[in-house]
Amino acid sequence: MTDQGQDAGAWADEIEQVLLDAAIARAPKLGWTDRLVAAAAKDAGLTLGEAELLLPNGPRDLAALLARRHDAAGLAALAEVDPANLKVRERIRQAVLARCEAAMADREAVRRWSGFLALPPNMPLGLRLAWASADGVWRWAGDIAADENHYTKRALLAEILITTLAVRLALGANAAAAHLDGRIGVVMAFEKWKAGIKPSGFATRAAGVLGRLRYGAPISDPAVAAD
Question: Going by C-beta distance under 8 Å and a sequence separation of 6 or more, which residues neighbour residue 69?
């Protein structure tokens, strides 16, 4: 890549983050909508046309930017933790909780973000983002599996991330930790994964949790979305 191309890429990355900052501030009132993109563009000093060049998929692109920011923040919070000194169970526990706490920095925006991803047209995006988050956690934890185990682990952890975040939003940190401990207790051993929760059911369960967030149904039990 030429220096000019690198400069253009760096500029685009920087402006995307400016747009995201503006969107986070306005999302609690505007939701994750085209109106949000327009308002964020104005706040960032861009025309709507310029914003659309950076965000061709509008609020979906903003949603992906937010997920990636929180993924990075969650991993950054683990910078002082050496996963090699922890059992795998504790590695996953700490990483999932760090990812959830990163999202809590933008709690009200994340509530609207969750509702946006719960809309049927956006559920595939929500699942892809959860998969990417799970992949980041497993890589931090030292997982190098390249066979079918790679996909099974990420599918199951993606569900755990979605449901733990849902509980964190609805009931707080203690309930989220209790929910997470219960889920890890069920699925941490791979033989239990194969014998118990099937990856094929992940999308259905995750969609159910996203739907609860979308329509405001109460999450009253820390074991929400567990089988």
Answer: 17, 20, 102
Instruction: Output the CA torsion 180→181→185→189 (10° steps).
Output: 60
Residues of the chain with pLDDT under 50: 1, 191, 195, 199, 215, 219-227
Alpha-carbon distance of 16 to 222, in angstroms, equals: 36
Report which DSSP code applies to 23. H
Query: Smallest Cα–Cα separation from 44: which of 59, 63, 29, 24?
Result: 24
* pLDDT tens digit sequence for 7-37: 666 888 899 999 999 999 999 999 999 999 9
56 contacts 30 by C-beta, under 8 angstroms = no
Question: 225 near 165, Cβ under 8 Å?
Answer: no
pLDDT in tens, 121-138: 999 999 999 999 999 999
> How many of the other CB atoms lie within 10 Å of CB of 47?
11
Residue ranges per domain, the chain? 1-56, 58-215
